Amino acid sequence: MADTLTLAVDCGGGGIKAAVLDASGTAHATPVRVPTPYPLPPELLVDTIAKIATDLPEAARVTVGMPGMIRSGVVVHTPHYITRSGPRSRVVPALAEAWHNFDMRAAVARRLGLPALVLNDAEVHGAGVVAASGLELVITLGTGLGTAMFHGGRIAPHLEWSHAPVRRSLTYDQYIGEPERRRLGDGLWSRRVVTVVDGLRPVFHWDRLYIGGGNSRCITPSALARLGDDVVIVPNSAALVGGARAWDLPPS
């Protein structure tokens, strides 16, 4: 319905952002952002989302995007929230156990009393930008590397290939994640982004690749010129806009 309002929540490693949007993706209030609290058991994330919701207009449904492998709203694995103090800190076994197979969709729906959709955060980001034509790949550049794939507008089964090795012992996540951008500077880091795109192109043969996330704006102009006409840089606001549009995606 055109007047249906969606609470869209983007859960990242460093912050949790939320907004209430209509079906066209227009926000009905200023988005809210809070730091991601650590350590973060599942119940605390659900409570944090509920608290954010009280500061925003009433919505009819909620979409949550979060890092990791999410299947039918159930967390198979999440990389940051199982750690003591955030990305790349020590993994806490009790948190890893608490998050494994946690039904996030059911917990959010029960806590907020709303129909809920819980997806990988790159999938939500993609829902805000895909054209629903051909094979479309989405990567998000931030704390690490988020990925999603769409075929004809349908979300393909999620693959955590960001954890696959790309160079020596480095994974894609480590190779172009935020710590390396800070260490290398935008120029050298942008060359790595180009290297990753060039390496992935013959693997996926996408019709369109979308690059989003907070660090997409750090890609240098010279690197952007080398990415190719089949690559589009999209605004980070897609992470919230996609929360509203995800409900209209064809069933997978």
TrEMBL record:
This is Polyphosphate glucokinase. Gene3D superfamilies: 3.30.420.40. Belongs to the ROK (NagC/XylR) family. SUPFAM superfamilies: Actin-like ATPase domain (SSF53067). Pfam families: ROK. It comes from Promicromonospora thailandica.
